[in-house]
Task: structure prediction
Amino acid sequence: MKQNRGLFSVLFLAPASLLFLLFFIVPVFFSVYYSMTEWDAVSKPEFSAFSNFASLWRDADYWTSMRNTLWLVVMTLTIKIPVALILAYLLLRVKRGFKFFRTVYFLPVVIAPMAIGLMFSLIYSESGMLNQTLDLFGLSFLQQNWLSDPDIVLFAVSAPQVWQNIGLFFVIFLAALQGIPNETFESAEIDGASSTRTFFSIAVPMLWDVMQVVIILGVTGALKMFDHAWAITQGGPGVSSAFASVYMFMKGFGSYEFGYASAISVTIAGYALAFTIVFKKFFSGKDSLEY
Amino acid sequence: MVTKKIQAAFILIFAFGFILSGCGGNGQKNESASSGASEGSTKSVKIRFAHTWGGTDGKTGVFKEKLEAFRAAHPEINLVDEFSPGDELKTKLKVDMASGNTPDVFLYWAGESYMRPLVDGDVALNMADYFAASQSVKKEQWSDGAWSDTAIDGEAYLIPIETSKSFLMYNKEIFDKYQLQPPTTYEEFKEVSKKLRENGIIPLSMGSKGSNPGHWFFSAIATQFAGGVEDGEKLSTEYKFDTEAFTKAAEIISEMKALKAFPDDTVASGDWAPSVVPYNEGKAAMLFTLPWTLSMLNKDITAKSELIPMIRMDGAEKDPATYTIGGYTMSLVINKKSFEDPDKKAAIVAFADSLLSDEMFAAFAGTGMMPAKTLEANLDTLDPFAAKVFEFTAPFNVLPFTKSKLPGAKSTEVFNRSMDELFAGVIKPEQFIAKVNEAVAGEKP
Result:
């Protein structure tokens, strides 16, 4: 009986495991292999050991794209996650219109990132909605060349990503908050705890497990962010708004350097893996608070 | 323990086979679905054609019609057409090539940097083989210039379909309102720009995103100076970009940027559709563009528009009133491997013959496309402004755009990015020249 149950489990796990192996693990190994080749996607790859990685080390544009990616990671940790958590906490206390607001905040998540990118490229255009709105409110001095000023363009391409991803984290936090028994919040209220105190002393500590997942999702998601920046500026001008994955695309599909592009993708995967391991190791054993 | 392992292995193999059989089933389904109208007939040969003639492309309707006619006339051929809009076709084809799944026939961009990898990688068929097999399409039906401009190592690996001629237009209503004359020289252009800007009008609708359309304007300036055309021709042999003509062109663009001759945000106004927006909205007085944007121009704006030759730069050696920047762009490429497959060869020849027929080119010309094949254009079927553009540019010689002469994809990618930076004013002309020069020199074998 026990043996049959094992067989039954393997039977059901096998298809998913095989698909994962075929479409995820195997391509990862292929990428690692291609990262050690000179390959234009048309001719046969030529093995070049670690020369692509050595070139990456000296490639100023790669480091610019990594700096831009780091900026997005910082935005994720300081804006996306805190704002999503605060919104979820506030909505939890809303009695009327709960479903409406939940839908409104989640709505951007279901829109294709490319569509959002195109929408924002219109908003940012010289006579676009943003500059017109600023003009309307007498704030013409704030009007900018949002997409061609290298000091501003990174903010411009990051904003839609932040806006879109907040909805995802918001829903995760909301679901987790709804899992905390109401009595816990009621007890705190009876004891005279303010909303702020309840948030920091009950909500945040009790969500720590979920928070860890969201941080990992947010950081690894930021490392591979592509669509918005490509749709809005194609990473330009130059590489001013190129994230690591945009730069990888430029090298692979722009200049036929698929070996080099694979090396960039391997470094992105490496950073994501390293972050996850270090983060989990550092925070292992720090479980959510339970009352 | 061993039995358990055997059982696990058996289940894995079973599941694997199950998945593969599932995939196979889907494939058959798709193929049968793609049979389309002539379902029930025997499809002995399947050929794939990758193209950009769909979506908002002006040729979509005509192409679909001709495609259906071909399918009806050739029930033995299962023709699968694979549409990707604009530059996305490049991405699709690179993925296809990398995975050994190159379409049998496809559209591609003419130019050394685009075609060189396909020739070196033995993907593109030498078209001499196709002409030898075709009964109706002959090399002589194209001009000598079409072949010399698109040849790789002196051989034809593509057949040009679309040609282009850039043109400069201005909004007469705006010029009349501010009592201005359309500029013919750079000095006049600067004066006109100053007056237009004082009145809140953008002098020239121009931007650069992925270098479009900026690099066409760059070529229109560079080719006016001594050696400008020759410098472009020598890019693939001498690997030098830091020439006087290119440097002067970069300096002029930088100066125009400083004079606010372009929209302030050149990235937002870059690429084809956004580049015509300020002109369409009556916010820009002049537009330098190419025929494929004709369908994007508002009728009420074209009614107020007039065409003028490109502005003559100070110290120009070549008169811009005698030529235009253009050349062969979208072309037909045949997959060499497919052509050598005896089962596919006849089908590929039949389909290419149909695509390259006078009838097809005439139909495309009716949608505003400038045909690369030598044939009498019937301007009566065209939109009046498109006909005006065709007539205006007809006497001009066509000089190739500099980008088409870059020696490889790596230097093209750097050129594209650096052009955006130059137009945005992020880098100085000398930095632009140095960056591209380094990339071009890096292509030296």
Observations:
- Chain B has two domains: 45-163+328-380, 166-325+396-441.
- Chain B touches chain A through 51 residues (CB under 8 Å).
- The mean pLDDT of chain B is 88.
- Chain B is about 50% helix and 15% strand.
